[in-house]
Amino acid sequence: MAKLKEFKSDSAMGLRGIKAVNTALCSLSVESMKLCYLGYPLEQLARYSTFEEVSYLLINGELPTRDELSNWTQQLIDDRTLPEMVKGGLERMSGSTDPMSVLRTAVSLLGNEEPEQKIDGKAAAVRLLGILPAMLGYLNSQKKRDRIDSDEKTLAGYLLHTVRGIRPTGMERDMMNCSLILYAEHELAASTFAARVCASTLSDLHSCILCGIGTLAGPLHGGANEAALELLCRFSDPEEARSGVLRMLENKERVMGFGHAVYKESDPRSPIIREWAHKLCTEKKDMRLFEIAEAIEHVMWNERRLFSNLDYYTAVAYSVSGIPKSLFTPIFVVSRCAGWCAHVLEQRADNKLVRPIANYVGTEEREYIPIEKR
Amino acid sequence: MAKLKEFKSDSAMGLRGIKAVNTALCSLSVESMKLCYLGYPLEQLARYSTFEEVSYLLINGELPTRDELSNWTQQLIDDRTLPEMVKGGLERMSGSTDPMSVLRTAVSLLGNEEPEQKIDGKAAAVRLLGILPAMLGYLNSQKKRDRIDSDEKTLAGYLLHTVRGIRPTGMERDMMNCSLILYAEHELAASTFAARVCASTLSDLHSCILCGIGTLAGPLHGGANEAALELLCRFSDPEEARSGVLRMLENKERVMGFGHAVYKESDPRSPIIREWAHKLCTEKKDMRLFEIAEAIEHVMWNERRLFSNLDYYTAVAYSVSGIPKSLFTPIFVVSRCAGWCAHVLEQRADNKLVRPIANYVGTEEREYIPIEKR
């Protein structure tokens, strides 16, 4: 990479502010801090709706009627069944394999077994939404050597039951339902954009979703909630957290869970999950993690004017609900899969190949030199 | 997708002409029809170099010395070995599974077995370049039930030997070497761009390459050489081809293998592979496919001023070399993997998260409606 030193970072701005595609799925107003899915304010969906409704809304464009919702919910339950080929694949993977890599491979295997030619795009999307929690449960139960055959009706409840092996409380189920809604869609996040670039070559849905999973796996994207918990667990009380984070800032260390590539002043999703984290900690009579989180939040605001993002209090809510840290990002996949599928279908409906150009910063043209003269 | 009908296609231009990232790997001048890898004109590389040299150049930034080339070549040979887990995965896949899906799953399995934390990015890249032809060979030999343990030293020769089961002639080997060079890199093609978006979240190399494979699988990208052969095989002689394509144009059917998202007047790679296709057909004393291709090329130029692209005569050269059509796109993967890996390493060296925004074209903000009122 001889030429890399000469790069000008400021001429590669990561397409910040560039309108790459059209969407009717999500509006994100940075000025008014307003986030809507198909026109519905996210805070209303988070308060009154379910992940089943929201995934229906994203993929079909309108909220379901009672019958439509009941069919959709039943389809998601039916789609929990794992094909033998996928089960076998999951069983053969070593227990030490990163869960995101496992999920990636399992989705690829599903694409081999049930290619999209056999089922249409929308059916393949529901199948993915239904099967992803079952994949996670199967993976996790293998480690624990006991399998949960959960009769939980909601995707949120089933997910919690199957990955923890313990039936969720009502409050846990409601928190997870809300969390899945908050993570379901976020306009052109890097993973969604990658899925749309893939869709723009008219590739199959499974390949598009694999782009989403692979891109989400990066620590600058989906890994943020895991990193936030790692931060919180470094400290045993709020006072230690305060001084510890001040020291980190002095040493210019990165503090995870703060700021956002698009939002500049606050993350509209953050207060919603913060409330759930507070409720759960109160119910469980264990406020320690929440208080540590609050302490760090104050330091970051006072010292850097940086706000907590969605990932930050999600880490508290998931942790206090007994979800293993290694499953935080895979659960993000379960939820965002709804947004990815909706974007893929939207891209196909009015497609133009996504093909930007590069800014050339390399050497001038030069003559080939035969090997004996090098 | 209620709102799709209202989309304005012209406001989603697929980022055409937008400079998305910096690169020192490839310069592509549309005006002068000049394509260079790291400053070296592609026609010189195609004439004097080898895929081993070119992949070294892309990944390391300079042409290798004799010692460096010899080590690199040996590494590519050593890296042909398939881990048992990957072999098992390939064996369990049904013979009817699409080879691109097989390759996608096999690369995902490789990422599970040999995650990048264990080996650095550059080593993981060489491993991929070495193992991809072996994956294709293993897949193909399964169908034929006999396995080739090839001692071909060059990647081009090994690839041909292992996928066909027949040792290549010198001319076939040279054509494949040239074809792999021509396909190795092409600036921000959709697949490369998807791989860079993935890399920009600092995800692992295997996930990035999976984005490349998944995106290349689409018929608007990697599938073009297969589609070109399908076109040529519709006709039994040049005269039939001429009238057939004229009829297709009248019916506004898409004729594959012509035009390009970036080039407007010609594809600088096309005459190079055309020459090889001509040489091979001459050697094999079977000019039929070449003459059909020429006849269609004339019609497309006279009627539409459309030029043949790289994929067009590649279809002739591969077909006359006895390569099954279903492996055309997977061979594209073997070659372009060099470019993808180089772009991923380049993205990491000066990273900025790729996160554009969308142009919102959906409904105005609206109130959530409880289900009983819908």
Structure explained in plain terms:
The structure is a homodimer of 374-residue chains. Chain A contains 16 helices and 5 strands. Chain A has a 3-stranded antiparallel β-sheet. In chain A, helix 1 runs antiparallel to helix 8 (170-183) and helix 9 runs parallel beside helix 16. The first copy, chain A, has helices spanning 42-48, 51-60, 66-78, 84-92, 99-113, 121-144, 155-164, 170-183, 190-199, 205-216, 224-233, 238-250, 270-283, 288-304, 310-320, 328-349, and strands at 19-23, 26-29, 34-37, 40-41, 357-360. The first copy, chain A, folds into 2 domains: 38-218 and 334-349, Citrate Synthase, domain 1 (Orthogonal Bundle), CATH 1.10.580; 224-320, Cytochrome p450-Terp, domain 2 (Orthogonal Bundle), CATH 1.10.230.10. In chain A, strand 2 (26-29) and strand 3 (34-37) form a beta hairpin. Chains A and B meet through strand 1, strand 2, strand 4, helix 1 and helix 4 of A and strand 1, strand 2, strand 4, helix 1 and helix 4 of B. Strand 5 (357-360) of chain A pairs parallel with strand 1 (19-23) of chain B, so a sheet runs across the interface.
Overall geometry of chain A comes to: globular
Identify the most extensive interface between protein chains.
A-B, 120 and 120 residues
Structural class of chain A: mainly alpha
Rg of chain A over CA atoms, rounded to whole Å, is: 22 Å
Q: Kindly report the CATH topology of the largest domain in chain A.
A: Citrate Synthase, domain 1
Mean pLDDT of chain A: 92
Largest sheet of chain A: 3 strands, antiparallel
